[in-house]
Design goal:
There is one protein chain. By secondary structure, this protein is α+β, with helices and mostly antiparallel strands. It contains ten helices and twelve strands. The strands form four sheets. A four-stranded mixed beta sheet has the order 1-3-2-8. Strands 5-4-9 form a three-stranded mixed beta sheet. The protein has a three-stranded antiparallel beta sheet with strand order 11-10-12. Strand 2 and strand 3 form a beta hairpin. Helix 1 packs across helix 3. The longest helix has 17 residues. The chain starts with 8 loop residues before the first helix and ends in a 7-residue tail after the last strand.
C-alpha cells in the first residue's frame, strides 16, 4: 500500500513553530543532537514517511514517557497536524506512532503487500528466508501484527475494546481495551502485556515496526544463539539519509539527516546497494519522498561495512 502526502510546506512550518514553542513551554531541555532527532522523527511521522519511530534518546523511562506525553498533549492543542500522533509503550521501549498510517502499514503487512525478508539467526551461519516459508517464529510476528490492527484503525485509535483478552481473541476481534499507565493517559497506548503474550522477540518486532526491509528472526528459546551468531559476523550498515528544504530547515543550508538505519550480515548482502531487496525498498521509500519533495528534497542510501562486535539483542 502506498501513502499519499497530505501536507503542505506551510503546515510543516507550523509544526516546527509548535515544536519549538512547546519544548520551551514544558521546559524539556534536550541535547542538541536529541532535539534534532526528535524534530526529524516528528517530521517523518507528520509527512507519513514513517508510520512508527522509536524514541531511544532524550532521557530514560518513565521520565521520557512523561515528557513525550506532555509534549504531544500541548502540541495537539496548538496544531491539528499532531492529532494523529500517539505515544506507544511496549515494556521498556517507547515509540511515536501516526495512527492512521500505522494502521495502513499493518494491513499491508498482513495482506503481504509488503513482503518481508527474514534473517534466521537461530542457525549458524544465518540465512535469509522469505515470508512465504513456514516459520513458527514468523507466525508469532503475525499474531503481534493482528494485535496492533485491533488497536489502530484508519480513523485513529479504537475505543470500543475489551479488557484483558487473550492474544488469540484479541487478534481475531475488532478491538480491545488497553490500560493507560499515565496521568496523561489519552496520549499513551501501553501494549506491553498484549505483545508479551504473542511471544515475539523484541528485535523481530522492532525490525518490522520500524519499517526495515530485513528483519532478524529468532524465538525466545534461541536468544543466546542469535547473539552469538550475529556477534561473530561482519555486518553491512544501511543508512537512509534525507535532506529537508530550506523552508523546513529554518533557513539553514540543507544537511543530511538519518531517517533510519539497519544492519544485515555482510555475507548475506554482498552486493550492497544493488541487492534486489535494497532496490525494492528504495523504490518504495523514494515514492513516499517524491510525494512530499517540497519538504524532503532528497533521499539516498549509504552502506558501510562493520567488523564483528558484541551485539545486544
Amino acid at each position: 500500500m502506498e501513502w499519499e502526502s497530505r501536507m503542505e510546506v506551510v503546515e510543516l512550518e507550523m509544526v516546527l513553530r509548535t515544536f519549538e514553542s512547546v519544548l520551551s513551554q514544558i521546559k524539556w531541555r534536550l541535547k542538541i543532537s536529541s532535539k534534532r532527532r526528535l524534530e526529524t522523527d516528528i517530521l517523518a511521522l507528520c509527512t507519513e514517511m514513517r508510520p512508527v519511530v522509536m524514541v531511544d534518546y532524550g532521557g530514560k523511562m518513565p521520565e521520557l514517557q512523561e515528557q513525550l506525553c506532555a509534549f504531544l498533549k500541548h502540541c495537539k492543542e496548538d496544531c491539528s497536524v499532531f492529532k494523529p500522533l500517539h505515544v506507544m509503550v511496549i515494556e521498556d521501549m517507547i515509540y511515536l506512532v501516526h495512527a492512521r498510517t500505522f494502521a495502513e502499514f499493518v494491513k499491508s503487512s498482513l495482506n503481504l503487500e509488503m513482503r518481508l525478508i527474514f534473517v534466521d539467526l537461530e542457525h549458524d551461519p544465518p540465512k535469509m528466508i522469505t515470508q512465504a516459508e513456514e516459520s513458527p517464529v514468523a507466525a508469532e510476528l503475525v499474531l503481534a501484527q493482528k494485535t496492533f490492527l485491533s488497536v489502530f484503525s484508519e480513523n485513529g485509535i479504537k475505543i470500543d475494546h475489551l479488557e484483558h483478552q487473550k492474544p488469540e481473541a484479541r487478534a481475531n476481534s475488532d478491538s480491545f481495551y488497553y490500560k493507560p499507565t499515565s496521568l496523561l493517559s489519552s496520549e499513551v497506548i501501553d501494549l506491553g502485556e498484549c505483545i508479551k503474550d504473542t511471544h515475539v522477540t523484541v528485535p523481530t518486532l522492532n525490525g518490522w515496526l520500524l519499517g526495515y526491509p530485513i528483519v532478524y528472526l529468532f524465538g525466545m528459546a534461541h536468544i543466546e544463539n542469535a547473539i552469538n551468531n550475529l556477534s561473530t559476523k561482519s555486518l553491512h550498515l544501511f543508512q537512509v539519509l534525507v535532506c529537508r528544504s530550506v523552508r523546513c530547515n529554518r533557513g539553514s543550508q540543507a544537511q543530511k539527516e538519518e531517517l533510519m538505519s539497519f544492519s544485515v550480515p555482510y555475507d548475506l548482502s554482498l552486493e550492497g546497494m544493488t541487492e534486489p531487496w535494497v532496490e525494492t525498498f528504495l523504490t518504495r521509500i523514494r515514492a513516499r519522498q517524491e510525494r512530499c519533495s517540497q519538504i524532503w528534497i532528497s533521499l539516498q542510501m549509504e552502506v558501510n561495512a562493520c567488523y564483528p562486535q558484541a551485539i545486544a539483542l
